[in-house]
Amino acid sequence: xxxxxxxxxxxxxxxxxxxxxxxxxxxxxxxxxxxxxxxxxxxxxxxxxxxxxxxxxxxxxxxxxxxxxxxxxxxxxxxxxxxxxxxxxxxxxxxxxxxxxxxxxxxxxxxxxxxxxxxxxxxxxxxxxxxxxxxxxxxxxxxxxxxxxxxxxxxxxxxxxxxxxxxxxxxxxx
Length: 174
Ligand SMILES: [Zn+2]
Fold this sequence. Notes:
Layout: E1 16-18, E2 23-25, H1 27-44, E3 52-54, H2 59-68, E4 78-80, H3 85-98, E5 107-108, E6 111-112, H4 120-128, H5 141-156, H6 160-170
Parallel strand pairs: 3-4, 4-6
Antiparallel strand pairs: 1-2, 5-6
The chain binds zinc ion.
Zinc ion is lined by residues 7, 9-10, 12, 25-26, 28-29.
């Protein structure tokens, strides 16, 4: 990111452009924003028992769940799926493009996906700022090509994936 960019909240040097909020952010405010978003997703989901099984669906997402909810990890209990924004955006896009029936919901019988509005890009940047390397996951051919298409849209119109996921929720696809 250009060094002349400054955080929209505090004016310090920006390290990340948030497509979600459409603004530049410093390290502190970027971290706060991502954590706050996930915690708010967690609190809107009624979780009576406080232990969760962390799903292996998305390695990158799972790293983040482990970081945020370390104390809640368990071998039994409700499931926290590790799907990210990309996974849900791909599902919605495949529904529109190929009429593929959606294979995942944000809220499922046995658990839910608190990272549905957090991108792998955000997670990787989050860890990079802590000097930890987390890699993007590999997807199969079809998912990969849909994601490539979505990424191109995202580059031209930041926030496009979030809008798509929001539309998917509204339509009951995910
Ligand atoms: Zn700031």
